[in-house]
Amino acid sequence: MSKTLLKDKIAPKHILVLALLVLAFLFPQIVTQPYFIQIAITVLIYCYWSSAWNIIGGYAGQFALGNGVYIGIGAYVAVLFHQEGFGSPWIGMVLGGVISVMFAFIISKPCFKLRGTYFSLATVAFLHIVRYIILGFNSIFGMETNGGMGIMIPYTGRWQDMQFGKEGFYYVILVMLVLILVVSNVIRTSKMGYYLSAIKTNQGAASTIGINVPKYKMMAQCISAFCLALGGAVYVHFLLNVSPYDVFGYDLSLEIMIYCVIGGSGTLWGPVFGALVLGIINETLRVQLGSDIAPLASAFYGVALILIVRFAPGGLYQLGQMLINKIKGSLGKKKSETKEVSVQ
Amino acid sequence: MKKLIATILAIVMCLSLVACGGPSGEQSQEPNQSSGQEGGETIKIGVLYPLSGSTATAGNSALWAVEWITDYINNELGGIQSMDGAKIELVVGDSKGDSQVGLTEFERMVNVENVSVMFGFYNTAVTNTLSQYCIANQVPAIATNAVGDEAFSQPNDYVFHANGCNATNTLFSNQRTEWMREVIQPMKKFAYVYDSADYGRESYETALANMEENGYEEIVGIPIEAGSADFSSQILQLKNDPEIEWVQPSMNMSDAILFVRQMKEYDVALPIFGNGGGFLQADFIEQAGDAADYVFSTSMWFPSMWETAWDTDFAQTVMDAYYEEFGYDFDESASCAWLGFWCVWDALERAGSADREAIAQAMAETDISGEHYATLLSGSKTVKFEDREGAAGVMVYNQNFDTPVPWACIRDGEYRVVWPEELASQEYEFTWPIPSWDER
Amino acid sequence: MAIFFQALIDGLLTGGIYACVAVGLSLSFGVMRLFNWAQGDLLMMALYMAIFLIQGTGIHPLVSILVVGPVMFVIGFFVQKFLLNPLVIRAKEREPLSVLLTTAGMSFVLSNLATFLFTSNSQSVTTPLTGRSINIASMFISTPKLIAFVVALGLTFGIQLFLQKAEWGRALRATSQDREVAQLMGMNNKLLYCLAQAIGFACLGVAGGLMSPIYAVSPSTGATFGFKTLTIVVLGGKGSVPGALLGGIIVGLVESFGGFLFSSLYAQIIVFAIFALVLFLKPNGLLSKDRG
Amino acid sequence: MSEERIIVVDHLTKRFGGLKAVDDVSIHLNRGETLGLIGANGAGKTTLFNMISGVLKPTSGTITFDGVEIQKKKAHEICKMGIGRTYQIVQPFTTLTLLENVLAGALMRHPRVADAREVAEGIIDMLGISHLKNTKGASLTLIQLKRMEIARALATEPKVLLLDEVMAGLNPGERVELLETMQKIKETGISIIIIEHIMKVIMTLADRAYVLNQGCLIAEDTPQKVMEHPEVIKSYIGERHYAS
Predict the structure, then answer these.
(1) Which residues, at least 6 apart from A318, have a Cβ–Cβ distance to it below 8 Å?
(2) A73 pLDDT exceeds 90?
């Protein structure tokens, strides 16, 4: 390989990503306080979910506001699979993913032809239907779900039952986050990635250059549903309790979208960045401000979302870009990789 | 250009990750199963209640009771005598009724603040999660309210429950049926209107399981959707079936208000035996107005029960202090916290040390009866943590089985306990049957 | 048999209340293709206003409408002017996602603010209308709901008349068909949007006043009504005000009969199942004029 | 060039409510031929393009491409079979750079991004816009967008290219340049249908021309003859002015 090609390969970006990975893996060793590992786990799971949502909401630009339902489906299938003695929750988790993909296909198929708002409405409608069914019935298909009370997962601590120590969960979710980022990057830089961006900006033009628009939207939605379900299964095993109000909550479904949009939807690092920054702010606010000010923290998110949508649709990621361009501009760097840097 | 963005982003992330680790200050390397501080002049107790969210009212009421008792122990009783006057220090956390937030607070209390005992929980979801984590981390805990059985369905020697859960409450309600049978005759069929939330469903299931035992021929189950906008169709069902003798609704307060109002609107004068929750909360009577008249309500505690306390002046001072703070009477959630926290005090006195194992041992041996602070403002007259089978064959561990759940009738704006006799309020003479709406 | 009619009446009357809430959204969605996800929470805000007003001054609920309605009108005007107009004008697509996000953000802010300000236990007020009902041939017609139904009819008829006859009304309908063309014809879109949104909010104010004698309000009331209203608007046909009335009544009847025949949980599931069916088979709703 | 007909449009009609945008039109395109499609505004030219490219479904009539009926197929299937098109009003992917726009077209035939990139770079060299490779679609000028759209259509390696008023909105200088480029494209032997108002373009490029008026076909001949055709002039300058 010629020298320049080599140089291109090990660009600072790759070194940086590697450094970030090493640091993330070392984090539980540096900070052994289980309390902070606990916060890190919560932040990581939201990074994971927002990145999963980003595939359909960010890359494909289809606002699946009700996609939180797949988190619930993944959680319930994994727990019931184990509880009814079919096998280990790991298999249940994958089964949950498959079932979520099935539901995602059934619901999204008809409404990908319709305009954006209808797709969001259909996903939220499905979320409500599943929530009412779970809350309404004490057992579904003969399996004990005891409605609103949720299901408790007995503590065994064995990894076969998807239960690990504090650090164990940290690493499992970190690995899942890395995997979803790899998957997102593969999508982003592949044919599917370009096709999704084309669909996102101009659906009509996309179809006349040979893009099967409904098919690619469907692929994005199915991948997103599958990943959300896996995350749901691991999350409830961490809490040792499946509460329908939590996993099928409309707030959770909204939150994973808000973190992604505020972070910068349609980018690789946006959702992770959004979930990380907002997660940590949320945690510190909750501890410092105490209980009665807590709802203000959530209200803050709503305001942040409105401001971001109005002034920086690209999210914090775009703000980061603007910041860098200003610094670069003021530094007066002579050699710049690209002739003309346009900020959209 | 892309490379630079990633760099900035990464640095920010590293900073925030490290920042996460920063403020913890002392990098306590203690192993997870720390035994709590040795001796020293304070004992830390972790108190976790839903201080915001939909169950915030009950959470704050319970917290008030815990803080009042702590102040009383530290100042009036001079701290824990068996630990030469060690003071109790409360580490308070808000679970927001959500298990994930509860778990985060649990970690802070158990590993950062190093509490010796965990206390509270209240919501079923939070109790399910934290009872497991208390067992795993070997931290003694007393849960209050938390009526779901599942959290106590595992044999362990760390998590105790002083006030009743469904399994124990229903045992008691079976005895209650004898009284209703004498009063209401013939009592063949009643309707159970339950919302799909928490204990509504479970108490209906248990009632069904005990149907034959209690001699009912039929229980009509009418599920409703919590927070629904209208109950007219359910009330029509009640009105349409003349055999139904009385109705037992179990729902949150805003639904309960709407329910009794519509019962009045549709002139359905069926006796209403409200099952906890909505029919108990402080301002249910005030907001429901005269529609709440003659409604029966069951709870582990009614304000009028202070009359039967063994030291009425002491009970009165506490009730007045509570009234001053909240503007309404000492409620069930405060009473459960009262019972539970005095059990913690009782265990600390017997354990004589802040060591978690010793406290857990002491809690297991709890045997309270007679004139004890714990039973002052609570229906339970004795406290003993047993592993026994509750109602409908549900096995529960470390439960207090003396948890009476008396009936009270709402008459001119007040809860008046009518049964059992030893807890009944003196002023109110119980009459049956219930007059129809226009006679009221 | 009487029970059948009783369920019928209840369904109609509750449907009237739903229609009151949905009419506003149908107008703003029809005219501006603007889907307001915060509709439920705005209703909650109006209900809080009405209840606190009645608790404070003890006035009659119908009088509270005359206060809460105009207040919401003004709020709606400025919410559209500052929050939504810049997005709608800037966006090229007909149903801009930025608006959807902003209204979702608004609903998040409103529900959490309500939890912070009014804590989470519910508030309600006993008004002269509460619990009153008219007894006709062993059937009970709840007075507050009857009034709500009548006002809903009036509101729908009024707005429909306004859209047909009034100068501003026709301008509103023009912009709903094609934004650019309307602008070319010299219509001040920005002002029209503010007007449409303001009327929408005013309808919510009226609904809040009407509901104060019947319902208790808590921060979660928004969620209860929120999605139901969106269902009704899509069911009835976006942009068609009579459609909102029809949709409201259909949902009211389904809930009433569903609740009576099965259980209210089935009823909710049936409502959403119908919604899904309409969404897939006839996305433009039953009465929609827009073939779009 | 074999006389074989690559596209045959047979009795095609499209009705929007009462309006007949295209009324019983039958035309054909031979392999390697450049066909002109002219007519006053609203004569149904773009509607015809939309039906051939699958964006619109005809009310009646058939379109066959390489012997296969395509009027029922979806736009992306028709593009796969080999019909590329541009739009009267340019439709760029605004968030993608110029290269990425063309690359999106090339991806259909070359699933691997690297190959598609090479093909795309070849085409934009041919169209002389490679210096704008990394400019976002939103910041390109009209002539650059027009060239980009042609490049994107060519990237799908079509057998037939539909150009819809490519010259519209350009200044004379740009028109000359673009004409040369279209000349180069014609020489590659690809069959083309051009919708155009500028007679010079039709004269130089088109082998044959059809004239549409109010949805009906009123003339078919070589461009020169079509110009003198009485009906055509009448349709352009209106009845009364026509000095019969």
Answers:
(1) A264, A312
(2) yes
